[in-house]
Specification:
With 176 residues, the protein is α/β, with parallel strands linked by helices. The protein has eight helices and four strands; from the N terminus they run αβαβαααααβαβ. It is globular, with a radius of gyration of 17 Å.
Length: 176
Protein backbone atom coordinates (compact mmCIF):
# COMPACT_ATOMS: atom_id res chain seq x y z
CA UNK A 1 0.00 0.00 0.00
CA UNK A 2 1.06 3.56 -0.54
CA UNK A 3 -0.69 6.82 0.22
CA UNK A 4 -2.80 7.78 -2.81
CA UNK A 5 -2.39 4.32 -4.35
CA UNK A 6 -4.53 3.83 -7.48
CA UNK A 7 -4.65 0.04 -7.59
CA UNK A 8 -8.44 -0.04 -7.05
CA UNK A 9 -8.91 2.31 -10.02
CA UNK A 10 -6.11 1.06 -12.25
CA UNK A 11 -8.34 -0.66 -14.84
CA UNK A 12 -10.47 2.46 -15.17
CA UNK A 13 -7.40 4.69 -15.53
CA UNK A 14 -5.84 2.38 -18.13
CA UNK A 15 -9.06 2.50 -20.17
CA UNK A 16 -8.12 6.09 -21.05
CA UNK A 17 -4.66 5.13 -22.35
CA UNK A 18 -4.04 4.85 -26.09
CA UNK A 19 -3.97 1.33 -27.52
CA UNK A 20 -0.39 1.66 -28.75
CA UNK A 21 2.27 2.85 -26.35
CA UNK A 22 5.98 3.04 -27.09
CA UNK A 23 7.46 3.17 -23.60
CA UNK A 24 5.27 3.64 -20.56
CA UNK A 25 6.67 6.14 -18.05
CA UNK A 26 5.53 6.47 -14.45
CA UNK A 27 7.62 9.19 -12.74
CA UNK A 28 5.75 9.09 -9.39
CA UNK A 29 5.83 5.31 -8.89
CA UNK A 30 4.74 4.82 -5.28
CA UNK A 31 2.96 1.45 -5.05
CA UNK A 32 2.94 0.99 -8.83
CA UNK A 33 -0.73 0.06 -8.93
CA UNK A 34 -1.25 1.27 -12.49
CA UNK A 35 2.10 -0.13 -13.66
CA UNK A 36 1.34 -3.57 -12.24
CA UNK A 37 -2.13 -3.67 -13.74
CA UNK A 38 -0.97 -2.46 -17.17
CA UNK A 39 2.07 -4.79 -17.14
CA UNK A 40 3.66 -3.02 -20.13
CA UNK A 41 6.26 -4.65 -22.33
CA UNK A 42 8.51 -1.62 -22.00
CA UNK A 43 8.43 0.82 -19.11
CA UNK A 44 10.49 3.25 -17.07
CA UNK A 45 9.30 3.68 -13.49
CA UNK A 46 10.92 6.27 -11.26
CA UNK A 47 10.61 7.90 -7.89
CA UNK A 48 12.73 10.32 -5.89
CA UNK A 49 12.41 8.22 -2.72
CA UNK A 50 15.47 5.97 -2.83
CA UNK A 51 14.41 3.20 -0.36
CA UNK A 52 11.19 2.74 -2.35
CA UNK A 53 12.99 2.48 -5.69
CA UNK A 54 15.47 0.03 -4.14
CA UNK A 55 12.51 -2.22 -3.25
CA UNK A 56 11.34 -2.10 -6.88
CA UNK A 57 14.85 -2.66 -8.25
CA UNK A 58 15.26 -5.67 -5.95
CA UNK A 59 11.90 -7.03 -7.09
CA UNK A 60 13.20 -6.80 -10.65
CA UNK A 61 16.69 -8.22 -10.13
CA UNK A 62 16.35 -10.53 -7.13
CA UNK A 63 12.85 -11.42 -5.94
CA UNK A 64 14.37 -14.01 -3.59
CA UNK A 65 16.21 -11.21 -1.78
CA UNK A 66 12.93 -9.35 -1.34
CA UNK A 67 11.37 -12.50 0.12
CA UNK A 68 14.36 -12.96 2.41
CA UNK A 69 14.10 -9.38 3.73
CA UNK A 70 10.42 -9.85 4.49
CA UNK A 71 10.82 -13.31 6.02
CA UNK A 72 13.64 -12.25 8.35
CA UNK A 73 11.56 -9.40 9.78
CA UNK A 74 8.34 -11.41 9.84
CA UNK A 75 10.07 -14.13 11.88
CA UNK A 76 11.30 -11.56 14.41
CA UNK A 77 7.88 -9.97 14.79
CA UNK A 78 5.95 -13.23 14.96
CA UNK A 79 8.34 -15.01 17.35
CA UNK A 80 8.70 -12.16 19.82
CA UNK A 81 6.58 -9.40 21.28
CA UNK A 82 4.98 -8.07 18.10
CA UNK A 83 4.88 -4.35 18.89
CA UNK A 84 8.33 -4.34 20.47
CA UNK A 85 9.89 -6.12 17.48
CA UNK A 86 8.04 -3.84 15.04
CA UNK A 87 9.38 -0.80 16.91
CA UNK A 88 12.94 -2.19 16.61
CA UNK A 89 12.52 -2.47 12.83
CA UNK A 90 11.07 1.04 12.68
CA UNK A 91 13.99 2.36 14.75
CA UNK A 92 16.42 0.64 12.40
CA UNK A 93 14.72 2.28 9.42
CA UNK A 94 14.66 5.71 11.07
CA UNK A 95 18.35 5.45 12.04
CA UNK A 96 19.30 4.61 8.45
CA UNK A 97 16.47 4.57 5.87
CA UNK A 98 16.71 1.35 3.88
CA UNK A 99 14.59 -0.75 1.56
CA UNK A 100 14.56 -3.94 3.63
CA UNK A 101 13.04 -2.31 6.71
CA UNK A 102 10.69 -0.13 4.67
CA UNK A 103 9.36 -3.18 2.85
CA UNK A 104 8.31 -4.87 6.08
CA UNK A 105 7.01 -1.68 7.67
CA UNK A 106 4.77 -1.06 4.65
CA UNK A 107 3.25 -4.52 5.04
CA UNK A 108 2.79 -4.42 8.82
CA UNK A 109 2.12 -0.86 9.93
CA UNK A 110 -1.21 0.44 11.19
CA UNK A 111 -3.75 0.48 8.36
CA UNK A 112 -0.99 -0.41 5.89
CA UNK A 113 -0.28 3.30 5.35
CA UNK A 114 3.23 4.57 6.10
CA UNK A 115 3.51 8.16 7.32
CA UNK A 116 6.64 10.26 7.36
CA UNK A 117 7.27 13.55 9.15
CA UNK A 118 7.80 16.22 6.53
CA UNK A 119 10.73 18.02 8.15
CA UNK A 120 13.02 15.02 8.73
CA UNK A 121 11.50 11.95 7.02
CA UNK A 122 10.95 10.12 10.32
CA UNK A 123 8.60 7.17 9.83
CA UNK A 124 6.04 7.45 12.62
CA UNK A 125 3.30 4.91 11.83
CA UNK A 126 2.66 2.51 14.72
CA UNK A 127 2.34 -1.25 14.42
CA UNK A 128 -0.87 -2.49 12.88
CA UNK A 129 -3.43 -4.52 14.78
CA UNK A 130 -3.44 -7.21 12.10
CA UNK A 131 -0.83 -9.91 11.66
CA UNK A 132 1.37 -9.35 8.62
CA UNK A 133 0.79 -11.86 5.82
CA UNK A 134 2.88 -15.03 6.07
CA UNK A 135 6.08 -15.19 4.00
CA UNK A 136 4.59 -17.81 1.66
CA UNK A 137 1.71 -15.47 0.70
CA UNK A 138 4.15 -12.57 0.37
CA UNK A 139 6.39 -14.67 -1.92
CA UNK A 140 3.44 -15.45 -4.22
CA UNK A 141 2.73 -11.71 -4.54
CA UNK A 142 6.38 -11.00 -5.20
CA UNK A 143 6.51 -13.51 -8.05
CA UNK A 144 3.30 -12.16 -9.57
CA UNK A 145 4.62 -8.57 -9.50
CA UNK A 146 8.02 -9.73 -10.74
CA UNK A 147 6.26 -11.10 -13.85
CA UNK A 148 4.06 -8.01 -14.30
CA UNK A 149 7.03 -5.64 -14.19
CA UNK A 150 9.47 -7.73 -16.22
CA UNK A 151 9.86 -5.10 -18.95
CA UNK A 152 10.34 -2.20 -16.52
CA UNK A 153 13.49 -0.25 -15.67
CA UNK A 154 13.31 1.15 -12.15
CA UNK A 155 15.32 4.32 -11.65
CA UNK A 156 15.92 6.65 -8.74
CA UNK A 157 15.45 10.16 -10.12
CA UNK A 158 13.38 13.31 -10.00
CA UNK A 159 10.26 13.40 -12.14
CA UNK A 160 11.52 16.16 -14.46
CA UNK A 161 14.43 14.03 -15.62
CA UNK A 162 12.22 10.96 -16.07
CA UNK A 163 9.66 12.89 -18.11
CA UNK A 164 12.48 14.30 -20.23
CA UNK A 165 13.39 10.75 -21.33
CA UNK A 166 10.08 10.21 -23.14
CA UNK A 167 9.87 10.47 -26.91
CA UNK A 168 7.08 10.53 -29.48
CA UNK A 169 4.68 7.60 -29.01
CA UNK A 170 5.52 7.11 -25.34
CA UNK A 171 3.01 7.58 -22.53
CA UNK A 172 3.72 9.38 -19.28
CA UNK A 173 1.28 8.62 -16.47
CA UNK A 174 1.53 11.25 -13.74
CA UNK A 175 -0.12 10.64 -10.43
CA UNK A 176 1.75 12.81 -7.97
Amino acid sequence: KWIGNKQRFAHEIIAYFPEKIGTYFEPFLGSGGVLGTLAPTRAVATDCFEPLITIWQTLHTSPTTLNQWYTERWNKVMSGEKVEEYEKIKASYNAKPNAADLLFLCRSCYGGVVRFRKHDGYMSTPCGVHSPIPPSAFARRVMEWHKRTKGTKFLHMEYEKAMGMATKGDLIYCDP
